[in-house]
Specification:
- With 456 residues, the chain is α/β, with parallel strands linked by helices.
- Helices cover 29% and strands 22% of the residues.
- The chain contains 13 helices and 17 strands.
- The strands form three sheets. Strands 1, 2, 3, 4, 5, 15, 16 and 17 form an eight-stranded mixed beta sheet that branches.
- Helix 4 links the parallel strand 10 and strand 11.
- The chain binds zinc ion.
- Zinc ion binds next to loops.
């Protein structure tokens, strides 16, 4: 492919936001230069005042394929990703069938993705009750890390682990040097709270919120930190909701424990007051908590205690949300947001004085580092994959179904007014989303981490 130059007055680089031209040759960024330095032979694409961000990386996505593609699937999830500015997704090992807990299952996932992915992808491996012997083979086969649940995941096909089962797996996890992502809620506090609520009104969001107390997260995180001290594996807490766990996480990091933390756009946008009676579209686990909690999560992003923001894109067929009965007990918990996470985060972040560089740190660099692909993805740097997003920071819109692009267009964000419009997304130098359309055949592929990043 010819040399092309992509110009903007605001290119978000690791050194800051500045006017620059990305010189792209084939699939890579050949160089970052001033507009005067663009070679005359280059084909020019000038985006003017629209910002150019690195392609976003989402380290927490449930693609549900193979096996539950009627919930989502590689074709629809990656279409939503491209529309949302994401160029690399890391798929969770559950909700698909088989769960990604063996090499054979990983091969089935590879077969399911072939020719159907519009962005690049990777698959986390699962740690379940009985697969400790599969952990090292999965690492050798290319998974960037592992995921486990300390509480029932709400779905068949993937088992939770008890502390004892986790202990059996941790030596193997530690030997791989890869991160273990943990859904950190313990069942004890949830079960005892739920028991007391058997006669409560489950169409009321507060009932659901009370059934998943902060104590469930806190006690899980305490246990994990102590296991991390003992086994020295890389611990990653997914979708932190309870801000009360932050001081202990902060202290553990100060002691040098290898712990990272993520939260999600829905915990940073919504509060319990935003959820009308029966509005099960807001159900997720752990739950969305109060306003004060939300602001503490933002403070933790400011302080660097929370490393990254991932979507936890977790769609289901709309009937599973049980919208007609509005029952928070029986409705599926999960919020799909790949296509809107960037505008949601941008809207909330600028209102609190954050910048595009912060968004890139949370939604590109941080997740790329977690998945071990930060030597090739997540930054605009010479030699990196030419993955980038053209983002109109001044554009505003009210979210409608036609902008969602995933399989089932339901969302708690519908009708929300958002700022920041994704104009185009480029994957390895080629447009995969432009002005509302998806040009060309799917060119996404499984990302192979280069050896330098895998060992970092
Ligand atoms: Zn999840």
């Amino acid at each position: 492919m010819n040399l092309r130059a992509f110009l903007s007055r605001r290119v978000v680089t690791p050194e800051g936001v500045r006017p620059a031209a990305l010189l792209v040759e084939d699939e890579r960024i050949r160089d970052l230069v001033t507009s005067q330095q663009v070679p005359p032979s280059a084909e020019i694409h000038d985006f003017g005042n629209f910002a150019i961000l690195p392609g976003l990386v989402d380290s927490h996505v449930h693609i549900n394929d193979p096996g539950r593609a009627e919930w989502e699937g590689f074709d629809t999830a990656t279409r939503a990703a491209a529309a949302g500015g994401f160029t690399l997704l890391v798929d969770m090992p559950l909700n698909c069938l088989p769960a990604t807990t063996t090499i054979a299952a990983l091969e089935q996932k590879r077969a399911a993705a072939r020719g159907r992915s519009r962005v690049d992808w990777l698959a986390w491996g699962g740690v379940v009750a009985d697969n400790s012997l599969d952990i090292e083979p999965l690492a050798a086969a290319g998974v960037p890390g592992f995921k486990c649940f300390l509480v029932h995941p709400g779905i068949d096909g993937f088992t939770m682990v008890t502390e004892q089962q986790l202990r059996a797996a941790l030596p193997a996890v530690a030997r791989t040097g890869l991160p273990l992502l943990v859904h950190a809620e313990l069942p004890g506090p949830i079960d005892s709270a739920t028991e007391k609520l058997s006669r409560a009104d489950w169409s009321n969001y507060q009932t659901y919120l009370q059934s998943r107390p902060e104590e469930a997260e806190l006690s899980a995180i305490r246990m994990l930190l102590s296991l991390c001290r003992e086994y020295r594996f890389r611990l990653h807490i997914v979708h932190l909701s309870a801000a009360s766990a932050l001081p202990e996480l902060c202290a553990a990091r100060a002691q040098g424990l290898p712990v990272t933390v993520e939260t999600c756009p829905h915990y940073l946008r919504f509060t319990d007051e935003d959820t009308p009676k029966g509005a099960t579209l807001f159900k997720c686990a752990p739950p969305i908590r109060n306003r004060e909690n939300r602001e503490k999560l933002w403070q933790a992003l400011r302080d660097g205690i929370i490393d990254l923001v991932a979507t936890d894109h977790s769609p289901c067929p709309p009937e599973m949300k049980r919208l007609d009965e509005g029952n928070f007990r029986t409705a599926w918990g999960g919020i799909a947001s790949l296509s809107v996470a960037l505008p949601v985060m941008y809207t909330e972040a600028i209102s609190r004085g954050f910048s595009l560089s912060d968004i890139v740190r949370w939604m590109a660099e941080g997740p790329a580092k977690l998945a071990g692909c930060h030597a090739q993805k997540g930054s605009i740097l010479r030699g990196y994959d030419a993955d980038f997003v053209v983002f109109d920071t001044e554009g505003e819109f009210t979210l409608t179904k036609d902008r969602l692009h995933y399989r089932h267009p339901v969302s708690p964000y519908l009708d929300e007014k958002l700022q920041g419009v994704v104009k185009a997304t480029y994957l390895r130098g080629r447009p995969v989303f432009a002005d509302g359309a998806f040009p060309g055949d799917p060119i996404g592929r499984e990302h192979r981490c280069s050896p330098s990043s895998a060992s970092a």
